[in-house]
Amino acid sequence: MHENEIGTVVVDCAVHLHQDLGPGLLETVYEVTLARKLERRGLSVQRQVPIGIEYEGQKFDEGFRADLIVEGKVIVELKSVEAVHPVHKKQLLTYLRLTGLKLGYLLNFGATLMKDGITRTIHGDL
Predict the structure, then answer these.
(1) DSSP strand E in the chain: where?
(2) For residue 109, how far is the Cα from the chain centroid?
(3) Which of 12, 18, 51, 72 is most buried by its number of CB atoms within 10 A?
(4) 85-117 as b/e, with b when 16 or more CB fall inside 10 Å?
């Protein structure tokens, strides 16, 4: 499955989840329920995946954690905040750069409408 196809499923599941649960719950609630919804659609999902950094020739796995990685190709970072800030978008771009993955989604479940809480980020060519 190509990254864009995975992304379509991620967005579809996120919209339905937001309609079912509403905005403003804890990020962990959305994380576990979105992961389950994606798995039911036949996708493999990893939660809280360590993203290592390399510094001065040493690798550190304590760097970051991606909320979800879907099919080993798409990073999904979840928020439940009033507004997404530039630092949230930079966080996702950093995860893409460090992993070498090309596509990521920042999903803000705190938005009144899920369509307003979706940010698609590309690193490199798809």
Answers:
(1) 45-55, 58-70, 74-79, 103-108, 118-122
(2) 12
(3) 18
(4) eeebeebbbbbbebbebbbbbbbbbbbeebeeb
From residue 115, give the alpha-carbon distance in Å to each of 11, 34, 107, 120. Answer: 9, 16, 9, 11
Q: What is the pLDDT of residues 41-69, one digit of tens each?
A: 999 999 999 998 888 998 887 779 999 99
Residue count of the chain, please give it: 126
The H-or-E segment that residue 8 falls in is: helix 3-21
Phi-psi region of 53 (alpha: psi -120 to 50; beta: other; left: phi over 0): beta
Q: Which domain holds residue 14?
A: 3-122
- Residue type for 7, please? G
Domain holding 74: CATH number? 3.40.1350
